[in-house]
Design brief:
It is a single chain. The protein is of the alpha+beta class. The radius of gyration is 19 Å and the shape is globular.
């Protein structure tokens, strides 16, 4: 008997942990600080968006095996914030046999949407969710916080980065990989035990690729006015020639690929390309929509 019914894999309900309560940038606390979040009208400091990517790892490994860690792409639009203590479940629609594109999403225990995403396996990813969203962006009106940014603007310098097991990742990410692994929703021996890994080395979890890509972003020197508070609105992590390894040097090059705005935010979309240390071999790309809250910038209403 044959049906056209779409079926989905789902993981268990998890309670992701908040690890950015002490995050600091631009001389002030971030939206992940409870007091700052409440000041801006939010219930509490939210969990960082890419934390939810870990809940998809077992589902994607079930679909596409180790190839997911080498050529997988999660392209996500964040819909609603999650605070510590709330439960979240990840889902992925089962693709047709041989297909390399799947719809994915996460929701809270009560059904509230957390994120929507496309999950694809390269090298041919087709058009990802965020590529669709970028194609639909309207030109922004007059920008204030981002007035000095331009599409095509590149980072001021190449950034050399690495992630060792006990390396503190700085003010933006006040924890280490080992501390993350003690709280991660879905752990794997591949993240810490080289002997268990198919590649003979410990690999960086996808949610921590976001950390690797962002913790040195000040070096890019993009002239964003402040102080102002931002959040991640959209994010795509695309493995090109993965995985990325713990204790390995990488080089990051950044470029602003879009500018946009909404009623509450001004946004700049940055593509960070992660290469081997010599800058010759592309390993991974991270596309991130940095959404800056207009009302967190002093005098915005008067200048508008």
């Amino acid at each position: 008997m044959s049906f056209d019914t779409s079926l989905a894999l789902c993981g268990p309900l998890r309670q992701p942990r908040q690890m950015l309560a002490d995050q600091e940038y631009g001389g002030h606390a971030s939206i992940h600080d409870d007091a700052m979040a409440e000041k801006l009208g939010f219930r509490a400091g939210p969990i960082e968006g890419p934390t939810h990517f870990s809940q998809f790892a077992p589902l994607m490994a079930h679909l596409w095996g180790k190839a997911w860690f080498e050529r997988g792409c999660m392209s996500a639009h964040y819909q609603n914030m999650v605070v510590e203590g709330e439960e979240v479940r990840a889902f992925v629609e089962l693709p047709k046999p041989g297909a390399t594109v799947a719809r994915a999403w996460a929701q809270k225990a009560d059904g509230t949407a957390v994120l929507e995403a496309s999950a694809t396996l390269g090298p041919d990813h087709g058009t990802t969710l965020l590529e669709q969203r970028m194609a639909q962006l309207r030109p922004p009106g007059r920008l204030l916080i981002l007035a000095d940014l331009e599409v095509g603007m590149k980072g001021a310098q190449d950034e050399l980065v690495r992630m060792d097991p006990d390396q503190h990742m700085g003010a933006l990410y006040p924890f280490t990989l080992n501390q993350k692994l003690a709280k991660i929703t879905e752990n794997s021996p591949w993240y810490a035990d080289p002997s268990s890994s198919p590649w003979g080395r410990a690999i960086i979890p996808m949610e921590m690729i976001s950390v690797l890509a962002e913790y040195s972003n000040r070096k890019a020197g993009f002239p964003v006015k402040g102080p102002a508070v931002g959040l991640f609105a959209d994010q795509e992590i695309r493995m090109v020639d993965g995985p990325l390894f713990v204790g390995e040097d990488y080089l990051i090059r950044r470029e602003i690929v879009a500018l946009s705005e909404s009623k509450r935010t001004e946004s700049y979309w940055v593509r960070s390309r992660i290469f081997d240390a010599d800058g010759a071999r592309l390993r991974c790309e991270v596309l991130l929509n940095h959404a800056t809250l207009k009302h967190s910038y002093a005098g915005y209403a008067q200048a508008d």
